[in-house]
Amino acid sequence: MGTVPALSARAVAAEAYRDAISHHPAGVAIVTAADGNAPVGMTVSTVTSHSVAPPTLSCDLALDSATLAVIRSTGGYAIHLLAEDQTDLAVRFAARATDRFAGTGWWRWHGLPVLPGVLARFACELHTDIEIGDHALVLGTVVDLDVDPTRRPLVHHRRGFHSVR
Ligand SMILES: Cc1cc2nc3c(=O)[nH]c(=O)nc-3n(C[C@H](O)[C@H](O)[C@H](O)COP(=O)(O)O)c2cc1C
Q1: Model confidence over 15-28: pLDDT tens digits?
Q2: CATH number of domain containing 41
């Protein structure tokens, strides 16, 4: 692929990029995996659906993420789409130095740690991951799902949490 010198000479500053992309509204999710007996998990806003047959979901995880390391070593993970009343869970699963699962009432489903009260959960088998810059695009085949259609989604936009009306 050729480069366009006039464009490649201009680097976009990370903060300008983060600010611009924060205008893109995104559903909030938590990705979990099982590190032996210990559950791990993190908040993400990068869940995207790809193929329908087979059903394929992706999320984009920072290369230094503890959750990514466990997904790579075990090959399995769960994606939870959060409901509008789960902002506290979204904040907790992005925070450092805290027991993210304490008091959540989590249990195991297909051997994966899962959380209650969510809009939907998907059990995924890792298909592949592709490193792009400082993140890995994690693609997984959905092997089971569970949806509560009475719940409404939690959305992240301009660094805040919102409901859909
Ligand atoms: C709303 C929201 C969305 C986020 N989306 C992502 C994401 O898509 N990918 C990512 O790597 N981190 C994302 N983060 C940051 C991670 O949740 C955070 O860095 C977390 O501590 C990583 O956990 P781990 O290193 O223990 O796996 C997001 C945080 C918030 C609050």
Answers
A1: 999 999 999 999 99
A2: 2.30.110.10
